[in-house]
Amino acid sequence: MYTNYFVIYFSYICINKNLMSNLAPMSIGSEISRVRKERGFSQLQLANKVQITQQQLSEYETNRRSPSKGKLQKIADALGCEWRLLDKPV
Asked: Which domain holds residue 24?
């Protein structure tokens, strides 16, 4: 339930806000990957900043594993993004 809200809010904060309406919905993993690349981080660099393994980050980005809310916060912080879990649909 919170996953979809995170993607919407993460996208809103981490992308040019004017383009939000033109975006197709993305998974958390693809959003993390996209923003990571935009910020110039390798998987290993981001994983080290977040204190997880590169394999774990790869599993998040490919949606084979879902990060906890705490890990999502750390990832957003490391990428220079703000996020919050919304209680209701936007």
From this structure: 2-78
